[in-house]
Amino acid sequence: MKEMLKENLYQILDKKISIEEIVIEIPKDRKMGDLAIPCFLYSKILKQNPNEIALFISKELDSSNYEKIEVINGYINLFFNKTKFTKETLEEIIEKKENYANNNVGNNKTIVMDYSAPNIAKPFGVGHLRSTVIGNALKNICKKNGYNVVSINYLGDWGTQFGKLIAAYKKWGNEDSLKQNPIEELKNLYVRFHEEAKVDESLEEEGRRCFKLLEDNDEESLNLWKRFREVSLLEFEKTYKLLNIDKFDSYEGESFFNDKTENIVNELIEKNLLEESDNAKIVRLQDDMPPALIKKSDGATLYITRDLAAVLYRKEKYKFDEMLYVVGNEQTLHFNQLKLLLNKMGYPWFEDIKHISFGMILQDGKKMSTRHGKSIKLHDVLIESINLAKQYIEERTNSILDRQEVSEKIGVGAVIFNDLKNYRTGDIEFNLEEILKFEGETGPYIQYTYARTNSLLENKKDLFVNYDNIDISDFVWNIIFRLYNFKEVIIKSKQNYDPSEIAKYLIDLAQDFNKFYANEKIVDENSEFKLKISEAVSIVLKEGMNILGIRLPNKM
């Protein structure tokens, strides 16, 4: 709506005002119009007073799209032709279904996304929830906008801890325990190693020796490491399945880039960027930023060295137009350093690197990472939410047959929606009882609204609407206007890398529909028209939630 009108104004004004400078507003009071164009912004460039500009534009606009175009105090207020607009919007949604609001803004450009990234041999903690669900939603948003997306799960699968784990497994490992509960067994072995090392100092040396063997591709060590990685991924897959996360395009973790870091060090030397400081190797960046530590004094490379190797490899392999890292706010310095390093190394595409940052998950105002001294597993939180959802369903109704499946959709959907309805950079509060409520700004509220539209459409046949005889009330018009605006929300959510744009839109659409449902009789002389509205709302609610990675039950 706005984008098409902007393009129209760009042409009317003879391209003297850039599309980016053209402002179109939605008045708070809809009696002032459906859209408003403030013309005083263009006076200086066009050397005319705002009213003259407004009058000129108003005469050039296609009047068939509007019931009324009025010029007041340098503003153009546009009132849509409601019948035409309603018909075109509903018919387009029902014809295109889940493809409604698809666009080609991305023009098939490639975006590589790095998100989720749990650590091998450790529980999939609740701290990884945000990266996983924000990343998944952004992947779907980018695809909806016509981009080609490559999803990467950059696993934490390398480091001295694996030497310790191999040493521990050789001493105390149990194959049956590893098969039954792999993550728990590996975690317990790692904890035991550190406890025993307090008494037996030789264990630390044994851990270093085992990691050196792993680095040197010792067959036994390599096979154990591969086994730990394999069983960890199988366990992670259970959590991904609950979260409705598709398989990633790549699981190349830190280990994959370990043998590529030396090339990075050599390149930095060749370009005269590497300096020595306290026996370590650094690159100075700029006055207001600490230098990047490339190699420690013992010769070991660091995380940023592996990230440099990874981003150069990905650029070569995927020829990306954007590289998105969905990683917490605390890594802001790291990604600023990475971009400056690439710039100093002479890579002009450094600006295509984007850190999609996010805040923490809080419980009672404190970081939600441990409970009673133990790390909180994401899988356990999801099961807890599913069980509570099942309890709520049993209290409300006996008519749902597939209670487990519906409980999963509600319980998991509530957790995901609670995350994505908030702008990502802020911290979010986690309270299961609040996020599972069927009213308010929650996932279950939208799921319930969707189920309501389904119940209305249960016995529908082909709907024929004579649009010349429809009655467009304020409740109906609010829905139609909102439905059309889904196109702009999809574009804006990509521009801002912000899934909350879609989540908030879905809340507004659900509220609009429920007001319509409460205030208007659905079965009357206009029933086919009202059922068509319900069908369009159902399609958009489902597609919006699918983009966010949330499944919808047909009945609740």
- Biggest sheet layout: 4 strands, parallel
Radius of gyration: 28 Å
Number of helices, counting only DSSP H or I runs of 4 residues or more: 21
Strand residue percentage: 5-15%
Mean pLDDT: 93
Strand order of the largest sheet: 5-4-9-10
Give me the secondary-structure topology.
Elements (H helix, E strand, L loop, with lengths): L1 H11 L22 E4 L4 H4 L3 H11 L5 E7 L2 E6 L1 H15 L13 E5 L14 H16 L3 E5 L7 H13 L2 H6 L1 H16 L4 H14 L3 H24 L18 H10 L4 E3 L2 E4 L8 E4 L7 H16 L3 E5 L5 H13 L8 E4 L4 E3 L2 E2 L2 E2 L2 E2 L2 H19 L6 H18 L7 E2 L2 H4 L7 H14 L17 H11 L1 H10 L4 H20 L7 H22 L8
Parallel strand pairs: 4-5, 4-9, 9-10, 11-15
Antiparallel strand pairs: 1-3, 2-3, 6-7, 7-8, 11-12, 13-14
Helix pairs in contact: 4-18, 5-19, 6-8, 6-9, 9-10, 11-12, 14-15, 17-20, 17-21, 18-20, 18-21, 19-20, 20-21
